[in-house]
């Protein structure tokens, strides 16, 4: 094991994600050296390689909510601003569970005349002091992150047909599948996609190459993907074939 490996793991545990360029600058070595280090740590199961760096490995459960909120906070804020720019005043909008959709909610606070339907109590709280009409779905409370999940939430979503759905995911694999960890959450996300005229995925580069066990949908089923880094060529090709627009947020 290289003497750099413990340092890299410490940074990953602190930030949730490491980048090749950032580690090269911090540790004073070449990007080629860092790529080898990350490959070694990936082979050992200590990290999972993603586009431009690595993340803590995932399995059948997600990392903690506080860690997710801190992970890539600047990128999520930039994605939130870019997504808010796609939402006109006086639109009806779904926002689902996730720290990136919460960033979108923050960016929507100045919008006029919105109707927001959400199964995310943090989104509802963020918009509570604005003029937006906020509808909370109900459902089974997931205390870890304020999410409302399950058949009650899905049934509530089915009562609406909104202009725009904004959804997040926990992982986005090489085949373009949007993945998550909780079947109850996925059930609601799928209902949201069905009940929207326009569908926006918000997913930063840290989601690329991660794994999660439950499939939500495919990139082909969304109209716009807002992210913070240029996706790999395979996913760009998939989006081009399906007509899914890719919007890379400025300032991420």
Strands ordered across the widest β-sheet: 6-5-4-9-12-14-15
Work out the helicity level: 25-40%
Q: Give the CA-CA distance, first to last residue.
A: 33 Å
Continuous helix count:
10
Largest sheet: 7 strands, parallel
Strand percent estimate? 15-25%
Mean pLDDT: 90
* Gyration radius over CA: 18 Å
Please give the number of β-strands. Answer: 15
Rough outline: elongated
What class do helices, strands and sheet pairing give?
alpha/beta
Question: Uncertain segments of ≥5 residues (pLDDT<50)?
Answer: none
- Note the run of SSEs as H and E: HEHHEEHHEHEHEEEHEEEHEEEHE
Indicate the topology.
Elements: H1 4-15, E1 17-19, H2 20-27, H3 31-43, E2 48-50, E3 53-55, H4 65-70, H5 73-84, E4 92-95, H6 99-107, E5 115-118, H7 121-127, E6 133-136, E7 140-142, E8 147-149, H8 151-157, E9 162-167, E10 171-172, E11 177-180, H9 183-194, E12 196-202, E13 214-218, E14 224-227, H10 233-242, E15 245-248
Parallel strand pairs: 4-5, 4-9, 5-6, 9-12, 12-14, 14-15
Antiparallel strand pairs: 1-3, 2-3, 7-8, 10-11, 11-13
